[in-house]
Amino acid sequence: MKHSFVIIIAVLLLTFKGSFTFAQWKQNEFIIGTFADPNLSKPANEQKDIAAFTRAKDAYFNLLTGPQFFTGASDFSMMDRELNIARKTNLKLLMIDSRMYITRDTFNNNKADLLIDHFKSKDTDYKDALYGYNFGGEFPKQLSPNVKKWAGYFKEKHPGKLVYTYLLPRYAFNSDAAYEDYVDGYLKSDNGANAIDIAAFDFYPFIGGDKVRDKYFYNLDVIQKKSGTRPFWVYVLTTKHLVYPDPDEYQLNFMSFCPIAYGAKGLIYFTYETLPKGKVDFGEGLIDRNGRPTPKYYIAQRNNHYIHDILGPIVMSSQLMETDHVSNEPTLEDVSDQLLTRKNKYIKKINDDNILVGIFKKGTEYNFIVINKARNPVAGLNITLSAGLGSQYFLSPALKDYKGQADFTVTTPALDKARNAIIKMDLSGGEIRVIKVKG
């Protein structure tokens, strides 16, 4: 009997080997990350480094994606310094290394093990600070087998750590079909162990004034649908370069909040620190080249605070039911398959064409994330919610001058003849509010 029991256990272990070989990474909080992390001091000054990292934390960043202008790694000294400061400031860090050329044929198990073994040895002291490995991103379709192969290898060798890469935007392709084929190449996998953990992508929508590049909302919708059960993250542009203007408050609001209406669970700011001068003339990011906050830092700080306190907990704990546009205004993108219709079971009517709504549900509670996509303010906005969703209505605080007063206020809606609830509010350009409905 004991021999038979051992055989049964062995069979079960073989059956489930593919699914439970190692612990999977799991996202537990909304991620607000930096591209171009706080610069380490030269010569090394730990107090200066702590102050620089603390400034990022004060703006509600919780993930550093690696020192992007670090090249020519000959040892681990710089990343070890980063890990040490991240641990002391309670920040998470993705390991990046110029020896980690996972898409080159010369990259092999020995080179991967050199990196993994070093950082795995840091688990005791830096386990919470070391969030995972950053492969880089925007790789073409033909490299997807290599990227997925090494994703599986790193995850197996260092369980529980994120293996991160990010995808190209729709505007890098000639057609929707070509783009979706490219996305499938990275997000579909014959082996679950090799699956990419996150569906991240960068799409910078503003290309002159308030003109929005076509397919922005299509891109959000496609990634949301193809990401499946994995979270997706979106990049927010902060720096003027190439065809992209220097974003102002309205544009930063738009880029930060629209992805959240689609269920994004992370934002990465490109860039946090201002990049060095080079072939591309990058403008200022959130921190200038002298280490001082720019005006955009304070806008991001307020927005991130609002996300940290109000939006993030909703997105992380709720199910996205749908995302609806009232019309294609103001971007004029064809969003016909995402339009609010008369048959919508949650919303009966919205009296402004520039509104975007993400509808989230947790148990019997509904949260309607409402965004004004336009630069012009909306005064006297009426959102008519279907009768029967609940009997208690609450409104989140306004974004402007938000400093942590996170409590929702009770609001008493007007009722139409069918007893649908009419919620009233005003929204500034790019502003976001949340309507909460409880039983």
UniProtKB/TrEMBL annotation:
A biological-process GO annotation: carbohydrate metabolic process
Keyword Transferase applies: no
Top-level taxon: Bacteria
Family matches, as Pfam families: Glyco_hydro_42 (PF02449)
Keywords linked to the UniProt accession: Glycosidase, Hydrolase
Claim: Transcription is one of the keywords in the record: no
GO molecular function terms attached to this record: beta-galactosidase activity
Domain Glycoside hydrolase family 42 N-terminal as annotated: residue spans: 191-298
GO CC field: beta-galactosidase complex
UniProt cross-references to InterPro entries, sorted A to Z: GH, Glyco_hydro_42_N
Protein name, per record: Beta-galactosidase
Native source organism of the sequence: Chitinophaga rupis
